Amino acid sequence: MAGRVPPPAEARAPHGLPAPARKLASRRVTVYPASMHIRPAEPRDHAAIAAIILPTIREGATYALDPALGEAEAVAYWTAPDKETFVAEEDGEVLGTYYLRANQAGGGAHVANCGYMTAAAASGRGIARRMCEHSLDHARARGFRAMQFNFVVSANTRAVRLWQSLGFAIVGTLPGAFVHPREGEVDAFVMYRRL
């Protein structure tokens, strides 16, 4: 190509690709099924939401919720009036759910907060990534200017890596703040990103 100036040598990979192309080449690309969509949850979804959130709550490894929480209480928590709750659905089957709310009232109301859970059978299919991407877009559309996760259990390394890959930074560490059922006391992270 005439007139094209190649990037400087230090910005080139050993195989000759410019740094941005190298970065893209090393990035994992998730392809979502065309039939998967995310929509607002409805009362008819409560049983499917319960089937997703109860096993996670019972395990007690990622959320600071009482593992003995009953189904009605768990669904009431997840779909509370201060939250917008969504489901990720494929071919009529709910595979994941998330909620979006203001992290705080008053002067903190411009920062969003979310919680996400995926059905165990759908783990590793990019559902949580897609829900987070959806929540970031929805939060922007609702006028939020940032998103904060208040209590990410450090032992939940898959979630920590996922949130970091989506632009969240660990901005605080709460030493030993979570009692993990297998690992004992572990740290919890505060994670944050601007929108």
Fold and architecture overview:
The protein is α+β, with helices and mostly antiparallel strands and 195 residues long. The chain has one domain (35-194): 3-Layer(aba) Sandwich (Aminopeptidase). It is built from five helices and seven strands. It has helices at 19-26, 46-59, 71-78, 127-141, 157-165, and strands at residues 36-40, 84-90, 93-102, 111-118, 146-153, 169-180, 184-194. A seven-stranded mixed beta sheet has the order 1-2-3-4-5-7-6. β4 (111-118), α4 (127-141) and β5 form a beta-alpha-beta unit. α2 crosses α3 (71-78). It is globular, with a radius of gyration of 19 Å. It starts with 18 loop residues before the first helix and ends with a strand. The model is unreliable at 1-30 (pLDDT under 50).
List strands and helices in order, with pairings.
Blueprint: H1 19-26, E1 36-40, H2 46-59, H3 71-78, E2 84-90, E3 93-102, E4 111-118, H4 127-141, E5 146-153, H5 157-165, E6 169-180, E7 184-194
Parallel strand pairs: 4-5
Antiparallel strand pairs: 1-2, 2-3, 3-4, 5-7, 6-7
